[in-house]
Design goal:
Length: about 280
């Protein structure tokens, strides 16, 4: 079952319910902000997030496109897709435990004022016990363009100090707080502000907390960002309560930094992510 709903201010989202999952996806940014199965809520959503046109939702899975980060000063931080209205192309209930939702953003006069290329961006969700999302960029311009992108996923945790992130051992990362590169030597624990870009990710990542383990599988992505603002930065961030840093960690499957892509005219590039929660 699915329903197109809106908040009192007209902000629209799709609510999906099937035999194994419940989800809410905003048309703005093709932004999934709730996804729940019998294993609980996968995504964190700020209690003070706005649901307003032109403001990115704080939490869920912001789509960072056509840029990740703020290195390209000609574009907003994390690009503009997350604040643009997508068109709902189709919702298909493929079976009782699998719903497919297809949203699309096409270039427009508004987007070309920010980024002067013609494109189509297709986001397809498969909502089941596994949440999978594909992000397909098609270049409809006469020139090639550079693309960096990420699923900026806010994972709900019970207590940030109890989690470990596995699968990144041996991977080099850029610590954006110090500008230095190091190699990860152990399962990552979050004990302070953390903002790391892992630069050659080839294996699955696991978010572990007590008996719960979230498998993070990405395709056509060789970079991943781990972020938590911790106390001081959290207190300064928009739409985030002071204690919010204890409730989430961002693990962002990406094509970022050296993992950028060049999309040639009439070509497409698709990045995919899949999340599955298991109990040990
Ligand atoms: O992905 C990590 C990061 O780039 C952090 O540096 C922080 O800025 C975070 O994204 C949130 O960015 P936002 O623009 O959504 O407030």
């Amino acid at each position: 079952m699915y329903t197109l709903r809106s908040f009192a201010n007209g902000f629209e989202y799709i609510e999906v319910q099937n035999s194994v999952a419940h989800a809410k996806i905003a048309l703005q940014g093709a932004h999934i902000f709730e996804y729940t199965t019998e294993q609980g809520a996968l995504l964190w959503l700020s209690q003070t997030s706005k649901f307003e046109a032109g403001s990115a939702i704080r939490g869920g899975i912001p789509i960072c496109w056509p840029r990740f980060g703020n290195l390209d000063k000609s574009l907003p931080q994390h690009g503009f897709a997350r604040i643009f209205l997508f068109e709902l192309i189709k919702v298909e209930e493929l079976n009782e435990d699998l719903t497919q939702v297809h949203l699309q953003l096409k270039s427009s006069s508004a987007s070309k004022k920010i980024w002067n290329y013609d494109f189509t961006l297709d986001i397809v969700f498969h909502i089941s016990e596994t949440l999978s999302i594909s992000m397909r960029t098609t270049n409809e311009s006469a020139e090639e363009f550079l693309l960096t992108q990420a699923f900026h996923t806010y994972f709900q945790v019970q207590n940030i100090e109890n989690i470990t992130i596995e699968g990144l051992e041996g991977v080099e990362f850029l610590d954006t707080l110090t500008g230095t590169k190091k190699v990860e030597t152990q399962a990552l624990k979050i004990v302070a502000e953390t903002d790391r870009v892992y630069l050659s990710v080839t294996k699955d990542i696991y978010l572990c907390e007590d008996d719960r383990e979230v498998l993070i599988h990405a395709e056509n992505s060789n970079s991943a960002i781990v972020w938590n603002p911790w106390i001081e930065k959290c207190s300064k961030m928009s739409a985030m309560q002071p204690e919010a840093y204890k409730e989430f960690v961002c693990i962002e499957s990406a094509n970022a930094f050296d993992d950028f892509k060049i999309v040639k005219p009439n070509e497409s590039y698709t990045m995919i992510v899949e999340y599955l929660t298991q109990r040990n």
